[in-house]
Amino acid sequence: MTPITLLLPIEPMGCPRPRATVRAGRAGTYMPSDYLKWQGAAVAAITDQLVGRDVAWLSTGCRAHIEAVFARTKSPQPGWTTATWRGGPRVRRLSSPDADNVWKASVDALQIALRDRLAQPFDDRVVEGGAVDRWYAAAGERPSLRIVLCPLEG
Description:
The chain is α+β, with helices and mostly antiparallel strands. 28% of the residues lie in helices and 29% in strands. It has one domain: CATH 3.30.1330. It has helices at 33-50, 82-87, 99-117; strands spanning 4-8, 19-23, 26-30, 62-70, 91-92, 127-136, 144-151. It has a five-stranded mixed beta sheet with strand order 1-7-4-6-5, with helices on one face. Helix 1 (33-50) packs across helix 3 (99-117). The model has no long low-confidence stretch (mean pLDDT 93).
Protein backbone atom coordinates (compact mmCIF):
# COMPACT_ATOMS: atom_id res chain seq x y z
CA MET A 1 0.00 0.00 0.00
CA THR A 2 1.35 3.33 -1.04
CA PRO A 3 1.21 6.24 1.40
CA ILE A 4 -1.37 8.91 0.63
CA THR A 5 -0.37 12.57 0.75
CA LEU A 6 -3.10 15.18 1.08
CA LEU A 7 -2.31 18.86 0.60
CA LEU A 8 -4.95 21.21 1.94
CA PRO A 9 -4.53 24.84 0.80
CA ILE A 10 -5.98 26.22 4.04
CA GLU A 11 -4.60 27.77 7.21
CA PRO A 12 -4.14 24.98 9.79
CA MET A 13 -6.21 25.09 12.96
CA GLY A 14 -6.19 23.25 16.25
CA CYS A 15 -9.27 21.53 17.59
CA PRO A 16 -10.70 23.75 20.33
CA ARG A 17 -12.42 22.58 23.48
CA PRO A 18 -16.19 22.32 23.19
CA ARG A 19 -18.08 25.28 24.62
CA ALA A 20 -20.84 24.82 27.17
CA THR A 21 -24.22 26.50 27.28
CA VAL A 22 -27.46 26.34 29.22
CA ARG A 23 -30.69 27.01 27.32
CA ALA A 24 -34.19 26.55 28.68
CA GLY A 25 -32.69 24.89 31.73
CA ARG A 26 -30.78 22.27 29.72
CA ALA A 27 -27.01 22.05 29.52
CA GLY A 28 -25.32 21.34 26.21
CA THR A 29 -22.08 21.70 24.34
CA TYR A 30 -21.14 23.04 20.92
CA MET A 31 -18.04 23.70 18.87
CA PRO A 32 -17.14 27.29 17.92
CA SER A 33 -18.46 28.34 14.51
CA ASP A 34 -15.02 29.33 13.16
CA TYR A 35 -13.80 25.78 13.84
CA LEU A 36 -16.85 24.24 12.15
CA LYS A 37 -16.26 26.46 9.11
CA TRP A 38 -12.60 25.39 9.00
CA GLN A 39 -13.60 21.76 9.39
CA GLY A 40 -16.01 22.02 6.45
CA ALA A 41 -13.26 23.44 4.22
CA ALA A 42 -10.83 20.72 5.34
CA VAL A 43 -13.37 17.94 4.75
CA ALA A 44 -14.12 19.28 1.24
CA ALA A 45 -10.40 19.43 0.35
CA ILE A 46 -9.75 15.93 1.69
CA THR A 47 -12.80 14.49 -0.07
CA ASP A 48 -11.77 16.03 -3.41
CA GLN A 49 -8.34 14.39 -3.15
CA LEU A 50 -9.60 10.94 -2.10
CA VAL A 51 -12.42 10.46 -4.61
CA GLY A 52 -11.61 7.49 -6.84
CA ARG A 53 -8.59 6.35 -4.81
CA ASP A 54 -8.12 3.07 -3.00
CA VAL A 55 -8.65 4.11 0.61
CA ALA A 56 -10.10 0.89 2.06
CA TRP A 57 -6.75 0.04 3.69
CA LEU A 58 -6.97 3.13 5.90
CA SER A 59 -9.66 1.47 8.04
CA THR A 60 -7.23 -1.33 8.98
CA GLY A 61 -4.83 1.12 10.56
CA CYS A 62 -2.55 3.92 9.48
CA ARG A 63 -0.14 6.52 10.80
CA ALA A 64 -0.76 10.22 10.21
CA HIS A 65 2.15 12.63 9.78
CA ILE A 66 1.10 16.26 9.68
CA GLU A 67 2.90 19.37 8.47
CA ALA A 68 1.08 22.56 9.42
CA VAL A 69 2.30 25.77 7.78
CA PHE A 70 0.82 28.86 9.41
CA ALA A 71 0.82 32.38 8.04
CA ARG A 72 3.66 34.53 9.27
CA THR A 73 2.80 36.98 12.01
CA LYS A 74 3.18 40.68 11.23
CA SER A 75 5.64 41.23 14.05
CA PRO A 76 8.81 39.11 14.22
CA GLN A 77 9.23 36.28 16.68
CA PRO A 78 11.83 36.69 19.46
CA GLY A 79 15.35 36.62 18.10
CA TRP A 80 14.40 37.85 14.62
CA THR A 81 14.80 41.31 13.15
CA THR A 82 11.84 42.72 11.24
CA ALA A 83 13.73 42.64 7.92
CA THR A 84 14.88 39.03 8.38
CA TRP A 85 11.45 37.92 9.55
CA ARG A 86 9.66 39.39 6.52
CA GLY A 87 11.97 37.78 3.97
CA GLY A 88 13.13 34.66 5.72
CA PRO A 89 12.75 30.89 5.40
CA ARG A 90 10.29 28.69 7.26
CA VAL A 91 10.57 28.99 11.00
CA ARG A 92 9.50 26.33 13.48
CA ARG A 93 6.35 27.39 15.35
CA LEU A 94 6.49 26.44 19.00
CA SER A 95 3.32 28.16 20.14
CA SER A 96 -0.43 27.67 20.06
CA PRO A 97 -2.19 25.76 18.75
CA ASP A 98 -0.63 22.73 20.42
CA ALA A 99 0.58 19.94 18.14
CA ASP A 100 -1.95 17.47 19.57
CA ASN A 101 -4.83 19.84 18.79
CA VAL A 102 -3.62 20.28 15.19
CA TRP A 103 -3.42 16.48 14.89
CA LYS A 104 -6.93 16.01 16.29
CA ALA A 105 -8.50 18.62 13.99
CA SER A 106 -6.80 17.03 10.97
CA VAL A 107 -7.79 13.47 11.83
CA ASP A 108 -11.36 14.50 12.70
CA ALA A 109 -11.68 16.11 9.24
CA LEU A 110 -10.25 12.94 7.68
CA GLN A 111 -12.81 10.83 9.53
CA ILE A 112 -15.73 12.97 8.39
CA ALA A 113 -14.48 12.89 4.78
CA LEU A 114 -14.07 9.11 4.75
CA ARG A 115 -17.16 8.11 6.72
CA ASP A 116 -19.73 10.73 5.80
CA ARG A 117 -18.66 11.78 2.30
CA LEU A 118 -17.01 8.64 0.89
CA ALA A 119 -19.01 6.00 2.83
CA GLN A 120 -15.87 4.23 4.09
CA PRO A 121 -15.99 2.29 7.39
CA PHE A 122 -13.36 4.47 9.09
CA ASP A 123 -12.87 5.39 12.73
CA ASP A 124 -10.11 7.67 13.99
CA ARG A 125 -9.23 5.07 16.66
CA VAL A 126 -7.22 3.21 13.97
CA VAL A 127 -4.93 6.20 13.35
CA GLU A 128 -1.60 6.10 15.14
CA GLY A 129 -0.03 9.39 16.03
CA GLY A 130 2.85 10.45 13.84
CA ALA A 131 4.90 13.59 13.80
CA VAL A 132 3.25 16.99 13.81
CA ASP A 133 5.50 19.72 12.46
CA ARG A 134 4.30 23.30 12.93
CA TRP A 135 5.90 26.07 10.90
CA TYR A 136 5.56 29.73 10.10
CA ALA A 137 5.50 30.03 6.30
CA ALA A 138 8.57 31.18 4.44
CA ALA A 139 8.38 34.54 2.70
CA GLY A 140 5.90 34.19 -0.16
CA GLU A 141 4.66 30.76 0.98
CA ARG A 142 0.95 30.23 1.57
CA PRO A 143 -0.43 28.56 4.68
CA SER A 144 -1.26 24.90 4.16
CA LEU A 145 -1.81 21.58 5.84
CA ARG A 146 -0.13 18.41 4.55
CA ILE A 147 -1.36 15.05 5.85
CA VAL A 148 0.62 11.93 4.98
CA LEU A 149 -1.13 8.65 5.71
CA CYS A 150 1.11 5.58 5.87
CA PRO A 151 0.15 1.92 6.39
CA LEU A 152 1.11 0.41 9.73
CA GLU A 153 3.86 -2.19 9.72
CA GLY A 154 3.03 -5.64 11.07
